[in-house]
Design a protein that fits this description.
heterodimer; A: 4-stranded antiparallel sheet; B: 112 residues; 4-stranded antiparallel sheet; 0% helix; 51% strand
Chain lengths: 113, 112
């Protein structure tokens, strides 16, 4: 799996968009970008994933740069309940080591009132 | 409701006393996995299972066993628990190995 780099922490005002960056400069062609989040000591929650096109669902949008070396998770209207650690994970679609899921340190997003 | 259920949620026990943490999912998922989470070390995968009777080691399998006799259940067994296995444990499942994972609420184990 390619490694990812995320800021350790970020702040966002309630009601504003939260933009969480992730760098994955060594990503290879068949590797997807996944985002999960973990609200304090709860089980991680899947948010969204993508390969190269931008993706949107009811929770968030995922913007992947054209060269796929970085991506941004966007929470359009952050609420206090969005305060969590956000994990960006790169995972291939073929077997072997991709059967495992490896979490990094993630970004602690704090949404402030 | 689709869910991954872990039991117990909390357990305090002593060194060497065998224990089992159960995990059950009601989504007919093929892939199941166990993680432990420790401060400063993040989430680390212990074991995973691609399907019934197919299991493999994750990144930190030492001191743990698993079994997958039925599709819905994936118990984590600590044959001789030690204090360094004190941790927060999560079970997860997904339709297939490359699909998004659903996580349980966690089991907090303290081994004295």
């Amino acid at each position: 799996d390619a490694k990812t780099t995320q800021p350790t922490s970020m702040d966002c005002a309630e009601g504003r968009a939260a933009n969480l960056p992730c760098n994955h400069s060594t990503i290879s062609g068949n590797e997807y970008v996944y985002w999960y989040r973990q609200i304090h000591s709860q089980g991680p929650q899947y948010i969204i994933h993508g390969l190269k096109n931008n993706e949107t669902n009811e929770m968030a949008s995922l913007i992947i740069t054209e060269d796929r070396k970085s991506s941004t998770l966007i929470l359009p209207h952050a609420t206090l309940r969005d305060t969590a650690v956000y994990y960006c994970i790169v995972r291939g679609n073929s077997g072997g080591s991709n059967y495992k899921l490896t979490f990094g340190k993630g970004t602690l997003l704090t949404v402030n009132p | 409701e689709a869910q991954v259920t872990q039991n117990p949620r909390y357990l305090i026990t002593v060194t060497g006393k065998k224990l089992t943490v159960t995990c059950s999912q009601n989504m007919n998922h093929e892939y199941m996995s166990w993680y432990r989470q420790d401060p400063g070390l993040g989430l680390r995968q212990i074991y995973y299972s691609m399907n019934v009777e197919v299991t493999d080691k994750g990144d930190v399998p030492e001191g743990y066993k698993v079994s997958r006799k039925e599709k819905r259940n994936f118990p984590l067994i600590l044959e001789s628990p030690s204090p360094n296995q004190t941790s927060l444990y999560f079970c997860a499942s997904s339709l297939a190995w490359n699909q998004p994972q659903h996580f349980g609420d966690g089991t907090r184990l303290s081994i004295l």
